[in-house]
User: Fold this.
Amino acid sequence: DERLNVAVTEAFCRLYDKGLIYRDKRMINWCCSLKSSLSDIEVDSLPLEGPTTLKVPGLEDKVEFGVLYHFAYPILNSDERIIVATTRLETMLADTAVAVNPNDPRYSHLVGQKVVHPLDKGRLLPIIADSFVDMSFGTGAVKITPGHDSIDYEVGCRHDLPIIELFNDDGTICNHIEIVGGQNRFVARSKVREVLNLLGYYHGEKNHPTVLPICSRTGDIVEARLKEQWFLNVKEMAQKAMKVVESGQLKITPSYNESSWNEQLKNTQSRDWCLSRQLWWGHRVPVYTCTKSGQRVCARSELEAKEKLARELGLKSVEVTQDEDVLDTWFSSSLLPFSTFGWPDPTSNSSIFHTQSTPPSAESSCDLNKYFPQTLLETGQDILFFWVARMVMMSLELTGKVPFKEVLLHGMIRDAQGRKMSKSLGNVIDPMDVIQGASLQVLDSRLESGNLDQTEVGIAKEGNRK
Assistant:
């Protein structure tokens, strides 16, 4: 629908012109299966109480998580060692410092000295003092990997540490990394442990409760990476969304979801929305770059971009290339309450209400004014922040109106393990089988023809028998 393409481009350009959309190199969530960035809201949290083996996309063997690995860094020109711990052992290949608390007497004599990287003898890492280090956790010494951890990145900025890129977009180790270059990140984890142990630097492992970041689309383990992306500053937009609920302009039913609404939007304020995706489908970012000067401009079309750049550069004509990234699908979805009625054209008539046999009357010539805002939105509580909050934020920012008066959230039908029934999990029950009944053979055949992982089919069949 070209009208919706126009709406998405217009929304981006208006937000860009307001200074709310910008491009920056920041720590972002990265899905190796999609080879794309993710917003925080697209990352699920999987709590683990201890050692747990999980199936990871792209690997035949399961991978163990919930383990804290200990290894030693030898102090330069000394027999002394400093022991650190990590749940992501492979990231030690991109370490650029070891941090201790400035008030920790155990390490005060080491601050300012250097350690030798055990797998890259030519690389020296400084021992730095930073108050973020918890003296009571582990050994009180922390490895710093600025390129693959958000907290470590902040530490790295404070201490001007170099950044080493460890992963390729597909989750393999960069080829320039010795020992494990080109290997899958989790295969590399085992190899690093093996080599550290062989060299006498490995100090064992302990069970460790942890929370794994999981891509909500692919089930892959999300990696933190430093990448240049497009972001939307949502701080003030989130404040406005909280205020309309607090004032009663927007009612959320059941009302107990209001506390979750406020909590999530407060969290949203602290991190801007990563809009860009490295995918082959979606609305393309409407930003163009001059092929000669490298100057960027946001425009509603290639022609407009050329005219803007030529004017700004004082040239008769320029050639441009459009940004290859596409927008997060929730960006276009967040415009739905008003884009479906022809926004930004206030005189547009929506084809969903008018056909050739029932053309619009003079009284209904402006669908946007007639049908927007709406009265009620009914949706699942699982997308309250994916979709609803963003519709409210975008509507307030671009139209000055709340998109609907009330949000009615329905519950979720779940399976025996408490998981939401979904096509991607393959755990959906046909309602007709519930109504008419189905034999065990029929239920088993449905499992075999579905998209459940083969390792889960046997478990599911056993569940059918119970």
